Amino acid sequence: MQNTLEFAKKGLNKNGFLDIDVDPTLDLEKEINRLKKEKNMVILAHYYVDSDIQDIADYVGDSLGLAQQAASTEADIIVFAGVHFMAETAKILNPQKKVLLPDFKAGCSLADSCPAPVFSKFKEKHPDHVVVSYINCTAALKTLTDIVCTSTNAKHVIESIPKETPIIFAPDKNLGAYLQKITGRENMILWNGACMVHEIFSHEKIVKLQLRHPEAEFIAHPECEPHLLEIADYIGSTSGLLRYTQESDATEFIVATEAGILHQMEQKSPHKTFIPAPPNNMCACNDCPHMKRNSMEKLYLCMEYELPDIEIDEKIIERAKLPIDRMLEISKKAGL
Ligand code: 13P
Ligand code: SF4
Q: Whose C-alpha lies nearest to ligand 2, atom 1?
């Protein structure tokens, strides 16, 4: 066992996940459920991971729901089927617990678009501004933040700040511009970051698709570009989009967010049709390459060997927890 673990650690350093062959005859579902019970683990999964992982998770949700679950879980070990910033947030909320991420290289283009040292210099130039950061950022960036937000609570977070107080919003310029529009805040500076998945949708192809499906409603995540949000029938976080498809009278939807969410939409409304919004690229794929690094094999291996696990410096945890706690408090007050 020790040798295997040493070998595993070497594989982990190189590849970001446990590079061990899994017996193809192994019943992964059974093994994952066994490990979950034996080790008192909880599997938290984002809507964007593959459907087989969503189906085996204890909780599937958006970034806010996942953070809330992480904050309240009684499990000894949190297994995060999502991306690095989500697992980091879970670790910040549970410094004493082990938090596992099946693939360490499951990152986020938005988080990458705002390196903390560069942001720190930018922040110094605006000392009177309150910093609101989208949860899709590194723990280091959270230490430079006053309040964290997600797409579900962003409006409430912005509105919790006095109107005359100027705000820096990072890192997503599209969500930031959308918030400016719906809150009427003009004193907001936006960091120039974006999500690679939500900026790939083709306006032209979506309009053509609408012509072919005149009854379909076009729904979009606020990480999409403003020209797409302008033509959307509904704009919301992943949980908001999911709820809308259940409540709307429409039976057909063109969905502009990562395609993983379609699994839940189809399960919750089996009689309705969901069309992934077409992207600009030739492969017609709007998958998040980071979310899709999660697989059943990697999930099983990380639960078996308890690697890769998230490690964060104590001082960073202490400072980064403040803006997350503020976000959770605002969400609680708003009944989210
Ligand atoms: P939400 O699920 O919170 O809407 O976030 C979407 C996203 O891009 C997560 O990476
Ligand atoms: Fe990051 Fe975009 Fe992937 Fe979400 S979908 S994890 S914002 S790259």
A: 108
Query: Ligand 1 mean position to 22 CA, how many Å?
Result: 30
Q: pLDDT at position 7, please? A: 56
Q: Is 68 in the pocket of ligand 1 (CB under 6 A)?
A: no
Q: Whose CA is nearest to atom 9 of ligand 1?
A: 63
Q: Is the CB of 136 under 6 A from ligand 1?
A: yes
Q: What six digits make up the tokens of 297?
A: 């094999």
Q: How far is the CA of 147 from the centre of ligand 1 (A)?
A: 17
- Is 107:291 a contact under the CB 8 Å cutoff? no
Q: Is 331 in the pocket of ligand 1 (CB under 6 A)?
A: no
- Written as one string, the DSSP assignment of 236-271 is --HHHHHHHHHHSS-SEEEEES-GGGHHHHHHH-TT
Q: Over 50: is that where the pLDDT of 34 sits?
A: yes
The type of residue at 177 is A
The domains located in the chain, with CATH, are: 4-107+290-312 (3.40.50.10800), 110-195+318-333 (3.40.50.10800), 203-276 (3.40.50.10800)
Rounded Cα–Cα distance for residues 141 and 113 (Å): 11
C-alpha 239 to ligand 1 mean position (Å): 9
Q: Is residue 1 over pLDDT 70?
A: no
The 10 Å Cβ neighbour count of residue 248 is: 15
Nearest to 111 by CA among 140, 131, 132: 140
pLDDT band at 21 (very low <50, low <70, confident <90, very high): confident
Ligand 1, residue 62: give the atom nearest the CA: 2
* CA 77–ligand 2 middle distance (angstroms): 24
207 CB contacts (<8 Å, ≥6 apart)?
231
Indicate the pLDDT class of residue 5, thresholds 50, 70 and 90: low
